[in-house]
Amino acid sequence: MILISRAEEIILLAVYAYGPTIRERIYEDIGHYWTFGVIYKALKKMKAKGYVKKTSSDPIAERGGRRRYYYELTAEGISALEDIRSIHSSVWDGIQNLTFDK
Amino acid sequence: MEKNIEKSPLIPYLILRLLLKGEDFYEFTDDIDEVYKHLADDGPKWKARAWYWFRVLESIPSIIMDNIHWRLIMIKNYLKIALRNLQKHKGYSFLNIVGFSIGMACCLLILIYVRHELSYDKYHQDGERIYRIAQDIRTKSANRVFACVSPMVAPTLKADYPQVEYVTRVIPARSRLVKLEGTFFYEDRFMYADQELLDVLTFQFIQGNPREALTRPNTLLISQRMAHKYFGNVEPLGKTLEINQQQYEITGVVADSPENTHIKYDFIASLRTLKDWDEMSNWYSTMFFTYLKIKPNVNVEEFSFQISRLADKYVGEQLDNWGTVHHYFLQPLSSIHLHSHISYDIEPPGNPVYITIFSFVGLFILLIACLNFMNLSTARAANRAKEVGLRKVVGAQKPQLISQFLGESLLIAFLSLGLAMVMARLTVPFLNKLTGINLVFDTLLNPVVLLSLIGGAFLVGLAAGLYPAFVLSAFRPAVTLKGTLRTSSRGLSMRTILVVVQFAISVVLIIGTLTMYKQFNFMKSQYLGFEKEQKLILPLRGGIDIQENFETVKDMFSKHPSIAGVTVSSTVPGRGVSNFGIKLVGEDDSKNQSMYHMYFDDDFIPDYGIEMVAGRAFQKKMKTDFMGAFLINEAAVKAFGWSNPEEALRKRLLTGYGGRTNPIIGVTKDFHYRGLQDQVEPLVMEFLPWSFRYITLSIDISELEETLAFVESQWKAVFPGYPIERFFLDTDFDRQYRADEQVGSVFGIFTLLGLVIACLGLLGLASFTAESRTKEIGIRKVLGASVGGIVLMLSRQFTKWVLLASCIAWPVAYYIMFRWLKNFAYRTNIGIWPFVLSGIFALLIAFLTVSYQSLKAAITNPVKSLRYE
After folding, report:
1. Same domain, B417 and B454
2. In this structure, are B357 and B335 located in the same domain?
3. Mind spelling out the 3-state secondary structure of B374-419?
4. Which side of chain A, N or C, has fewer Cβ within a 10 Å radius?
């Protein structure tokens, strides 16, 4: 199983939005802003891996007649998130048994 | 919303424009523009601008990282395609990489050699301040240069010139007999030197005190390997060794002599040992190599001018009377090996000409390899045309394609460099055996050299890849994707030029090799003016003195039926002659000359079969011949200015060494007492027993084993305790040509390799041509062409190229070889044969290479060939 990184996890949890919204959501989640560069970079990589899908909206007058690019989770993205979640919980469940008495 | 015409800041926008492309750029700028406009609407404008600025600046690192990430992925793809291509076309890749790496391996070997030659004596500390003082002795008629000077020069330099920091004398003494507890060895790398030697030159002390190792008489420094040889694991310090009947105390062990010094040593004895020798105060002796270290910041030019007449202060008057000038000059230590040009030196000097020759050979071979690569790459272009077309269709730009193909040639260049390193590492021992030089591959393994090698491979890859990259990337997708690409005639002619240049270089190299062999053969077969066959030489080494008993010694050896003659002499041809001043009695000093001297007994002239042109040879019954008469050669007659040899008879000479005045009783025909590189120079011969160092036995080699056994048993009886050494004159004499011959054989090997690389290229090209004419050949066969006819048709083209290459190569080769032959006083004429042969050879090789492919194409069933495509 290939695990996604913490940064990827955070971003994936913030998608179904476009750049500025994603950035705001991350801020709400973790309490500080990430740079746009970091966010686009991670999104681009995850797009190549198939975790997110990039779609474009209809032209928007607010943007001078250009499109917004929205990101949404794919099935692979969802299962990657589930994977990391189950890992998290199993790791945290084990915390009571830290005495290595297996 | 119409009021939102707030423009975003220009500079960060431009920064993004630079860093991002296409959709990425629009996404980024539009996204932050949107937020920016909101901010500008809601709050102060400067705050919004600052926000915009910060968002862009803080993103730069990750944008750059992102770019690198995707670029790397593209490079990975290029690499994958390149490796796939290598795998897919194994034959072609093999030709390319092997050709390239052979070329590079040659260059590496040559680089090792050149670096070795150039590194001579560069390892000494303060090397730029170390010099050797040499002199030329000028008389009115002659001017002779000596690398060694009088023993008085060193103390004089130290006393009279404050610029001198240290100065040392070195006197090499060959063939010492070392005795230790009943074992005997001859050792050649023995020398006497002053204590200050250790201050002038750099020695690495393993044991002993460098401050006082050579201060006392009879003290000795030995090299590490000698310490091991004579003492094994025993502590050598303080032990004694007996050398030529003298006891020496070992006061130090130094690291083995490096290969790249002209003063190679195993034993360094203190010069104090010779303090009672009367030569030590002789201003006219020239036996001592003298090295000095001058103080820092001394003006060398001024200093060398000051010392140029240093002897005048002490013996000026005497020199004036003789009409002689002793002129001293300095030689920088590191220049001695290659640029000293003095005939007698501690070690025969290196030849800078060979460095040039080999550097050029290396470059040529590399050039052939590069041309090969260019040739094969463009010839194969059709195979890659579809890929190029497809890449262009999906959006590849020309620069991208160029960098892809350049990358491929770089990949091949680096792979070849790796392979070449392995090849060179494996062939260095072989090369060492061939040349007698101890080259070390590991000298290449230092960071600077490695980096420059990688840089070199990069340049080579670039040079070789540039042309094919441009050709390949210029294909038009519409044409190539239809699959009908045939090479244009322009490409073909460019490739023709490449092949012609390759073969022209090969032909030059072949002519060079042939001419060299012709010259060596000439030197070996030329009659030398004496019999060099069937002469067994026994050198008397380790201080054996036969001046009292040479007659008895001769008798002992002549008691065998297969030994036809025994003669003793100071030297034998090829073993060096000494040079002394000569004065013609009754003439003024301006007629003084310096000439080579040889000393031998009455049997020498008849045994060696040397012809007399006037007078007679030494005779046993003439008691006055013994130390009382001279023979000279024809060259000496000429040098004295006599018109015929008869004139020389009964003239009296005074020889400089020992000062004897005697008449000339005979003139010999010129014989080659030195190799054929050198002119036969004037020679004076004398019957002088105290200098006899060689016994020559004229033997019948039909019962060699038995004769040698006899010689050995007699030797043991006459010289008990001295190990016997023996050699045959002919092989020993030819040893003088060994350096040149070794160069010749190395040259030959490189020629062969160059030719192999050129053939690899031709092979690739031939297969390509045959392939691209498959259909034509099929049609010709259907119309009734014979196999022979088709082979001929395909080969004709190559024949033309090779002939053209030969025509270009001939004048170049002629010029080069003409220059090379000038090194030899006696030389063969270049003649027409090397040229004809090289042409035939190149043609033959080319034909053989091509014919395999042509034959394959010609015997293919036309049904098959017409169906292809």
Report:
1. yes
2. no
3. HHHHHHCHHHHHHHHHHHHHCCCCHHHHHHHHHHHHHHHHHHHHHH
4. C
